[in-house]
Amino acid sequence: MSYESDMLKKLVMPTKIEVEHALLKTLFKHNGVIKEFSSGQEIVDEIANEFSLNDDQRVAFLETIYRKENRIKKSILWHRLLFRAADSLAKEKLVSRPTSTFALTSRREWMLTEDGYNKALDLLNIPTAQKLLLPTKSYEVEKIIKKLNENLRPQNYDPFDKSKKTLITTKEYSIRARGFRQAVIKAYDYKCAFCGLKLQSPNSLLWEVEAAHIVPHCFKGKDDIWNGIAFCHLHHWAFDVGWFTLQDDFKITISEKANLMSANYGKFFDRDLLRPLAGNKIFLPEKEESSPHPNSLLWHRKNRFYH
Ligand SMILES: [Zn+2]
């Protein structure tokens, strides 16, 4: 038995597979990213706490003797176990290495990949159907978000993606849909563009706001920022069914049908949630180029708005 495995056994350290699973679960808890272990003692301690490691287990170190250079290298056994587990997850393509993540987000972090995300959900017994709403980052989705934010706003924008398949539930579709959602709601600072509502779930995980397609998905509307707006659930629905539309100057036009609606409709207590906002300009993204494209809005006025 080698010196290291001897130590692992003597100290009753967790096995590699146990550490790998703990890492995936911790990544999920931290929205898909954790710092490099060398710069993130809190994470190192957090995972050690998961295993209720005692002081001896946390600080035990290994000595590697380099005879030629006549020196001894000491490394903490627990750090080594963590790094090995992360390295093996990276080899299995379940996480991206800090160097790869850095190229994407400028932060040296381990990040879940789509496969790693699925595995974490599986370990935690969370249905994969919840993925669309969870804010958890994945390498593939971050890549889409980066692209959506970096693309230059086209003058002659075509809001249709003619090759789009509307009835697919593939992995590729899930990644694109989540990239669209996260890029849009972030651009609008998680607020409804119509009423300004900004609301999180009590555990701070989920945002109430939704990313609406202006030309809808079922009409092959593109999944990019210029064909998207962030709306609360209510105003997303009202926009989709044509209760209101937007002019090119982003001012709200309300359907004339609203005047025929019973006085007690569309209200939250005394407050009318639709009609008084006619003529108001919506809340726009801070970055002007992320605003809805007139070509998408034109389609909505012609095809969705109920005059
Ligand atoms: Zn709203």
From TrEMBL:
GO terms for molecular function: endonuclease activity. This is HNH endonuclease. The keyword Hydrolase applies. Keywords: Endonuclease, Hydrolase, Nuclease. CDD domains: HNHc. Coiled coil: none annotated. Gene3D superfamilies: 1.10.30.50. Pfam families: HNH_2. Signal peptide: none annotated. InterPro entries: HNH_nuc. The keyword Hydrolase applies. Residues 192-246 form the HNH nuclease domain.
